[in-house]
UniProtKB/TrEMBL annotation:
Source organism, top-level taxon: Bacteria
InterPro entries named among the record's database cross-references: Agmatinase-rel (IPR005925), Ureohydrolase (IPR006035), Ureohydrolase_dom_sf (IPR023696), Ureohydrolase_Mn_BS (IPR020855)
One GO BP annotation of this record: putrescine biosynthetic process from arginine, via agmatine
Family under the similarity heading: Belongs to the arginase family. Agmatinase subfamily.
Binding locations of Mn(2+) 2: 232
Keywords noted in UniProt: Hydrolase, Manganese, Metal-binding
Keyword RNA-binding among record annotations: no
Protein name: Agmatinase
GO MF annotations, alphabetized: agmatinase activity; metal ion binding
């Protein structure tokens, strides 16, 4: 695949890395097991713009998480068991979305082909589509665990649209929809013929994380799992800084328990998208995004090394 040149790469400069981890400059020589990438893109939004600054906000908010060392409730320090590096922000021609598609698929492809996992910060949710294309080239159709207020399976929309990504992912055979599940949904969609199992926010809020995890595990089985977390899956009380907020969502506590409960499954990657700091308040949305991402990394380490949490 040809990679577009990124003349005048807006938002390409990296203010700080996620968790102040090292910045990787050569993926082939890197010993990292997980590579972080920021994608400053929000041209596919249908609501309020601003998610192009989400990756920078998440990295900045991670400064609040660094001091803890061994994060509660885990019984170990992540750095002792998992090597993570930050590749900075993806470069592409802003205003030309196809360069984002080409460059992001190629970049994630280079991460995955080198035996590493990708942790990707949006940007709007459209970025997940080229990421899944890269993953599918190695793994075939993956199981998707998708947290969101919206199903993003709408067949209409433009070529670049954050509301159509999982429609295209199914059509292109990127996800195994029979082993995929959507969580926290609370907007309308066509139920008849819907390709994914859906646990809406009301069901999860009524039944709790334990029952939800039972359904997740039964659905995904032993398939390679990609986690896509739209921050608007959280209730706006916990994540006001997003483009399409919807009330009556998940709590951060519930979301963290769901991520933590994925320990032992075949997790291959994750994205956190739709953080829009212009609408945030005291960095609480960015902090939620950073914390969810860090929790995912702890789950990867705990799964690999059979580690646990304090009882």
């Amino acid at each position: 695949m040809s990679v577009a040149n990124a003349d005048l790469p807006l938002y390409g400069e990296l203010g700080m890395t996620f968790m102040q981890w090292p910045q990787v400059t050569n993926l082939e020589r890197s010993d990292a097991e997980v590579v972080v990438t920021g994608v400053p893109f929000d041209l596919a939004t249908s609501g309020r713009p601003g998610a192009r600054l989400g990756a920078a906000a998440i990295r900045q908010a991670s400064a609040n998480l660094i001091w803890e060392g061994a994060r509660w409730p885990w019984s170990f320090a992540l750095d002792d068991y998992l090597a993570v590096e930050d590749s900075g922000n993806l470069l592409f021609k802003h205003g030309e979305p196809q360069t984002l598609v080409d460059n992001l698929e190629a970049h994630i492809g280079s991460i995955v082909s080198s035996g590493k996992k990708a942790l990707t910060f949006g940007g709007d949710h459209f970025i997940t589509l080229p990421v899944l294309r890269a993953y599918a080239k190695k793994y075939g159709p993956v199981a998707l665990v998708h947290v969101d207020a919206h199903t993003d399976t709408y067949s209409g929309g433009s070529r670049y649209d954050h509301g159509t990504i999982f429609h295209h992912a199914v059509q292109e055979g990127l996800v195994d929809h029979e082993h995929s599940i959507q969580l926290g949904i609370r907007t309308s969609y066509t139920v008849e013929g819907h390709p994914f199992e859906v646990l809406d926010a009301a069901w999860i809020n009524d039944h709790g994380p334990t029952a939800t995890l039972e359904r997740i595990r039964a659905r995904v089985g032993d398939k390679p799992i990609y986690v896509s977390f739209d921050i608007d899956g959280l209730d706006p009380a916990f994540a006001p800084g997003t483009g399409t907020p919807v009330v009556a969502g998940l709590t951060v506590d519930c979301a963290l328990k769901l991520i933590r409960g994925l320990q032992g499954l075949d997790l291959i990657g994750m994205d956190v998208v739709e953080v829009a700091p212009a609408y945030d308040n005291a960095e609480i949305t960015a902090l939620a995004g950073a914390t969810l991402a860090l929790e995912f990394l702890y789950v990867l380490a705990a799964t690999t090394h059979s580690l646990g949490v304090h009882k």
